[in-house]
Amino acid sequence: MPLFRQFRPLLLCGLIALGGCDSFDEEAAALQIRDRFCEGWPYGCTDSTYVVVEDVNETPNGREIVFRVRDREDETAELSAAYFEPRDDEWQFFTFVPPLRERFQEAASQVDVDSRAFEDQLMEVKSAQRWFLSIYGRYARSLEELDSVSYKRPHMPIEMSVSGGSWSAVMRSEYVKCEFDSSRMQLPSCTGLAALNAGVERGPLARNFGEED
Hints:
Layout: H1 2-22, H2 26-40, E1 49-58, E2 63-71, E3 74-75, E4 79-87, E5 90-96, H3 100-136, E6 159-163, E7 166-172, E8 176-181, E9 189-192, H4 204-209
Antiparallel strand pairs: 1-2, 2-3, 2-4, 4-5, 6-7, 7-8, 8-9
């Protein structure tokens, strides 16, 4: 018995340490979910967007997090789930779990589709401007001028301007804005846009993720 009492504090410390290794930081998990959600689908996010953890379910190798995304008056339904795995003594976001994964990929594809289309169109303008410059010694001041080098204007609107020895162009949609500036860029740069009605009741979060799974 005296020997047991002697090692009892060490045993308790060991149990506490073990529990600490297995602890799950919901606040840190919420931040990771927000980062992944808003990086993939910036349309529904603003600086006011945050994630509420509703439940943490243990799995054989990780944790499944049931959560909501909120932005002021706008919020998703309860979403199931974000999957986390332990890495380097920390819990790290791994993936969204079906059926949420498919719903999220569908929403995120809206940004991807527009970005790819706009990047292709801006690269075509870049090629046409180079050809125009080689023929006329200056950049075309409008898309109409590029007709002389067989440039085919798309149905999507392009805002183009010329200043001195450089030119710039911008394309935008509801979900994304892409731009190219010949004085400082080699490739177009695209940025996902927040919805104009982000944060309102039954806004983009509710419309896209408002039905319960």
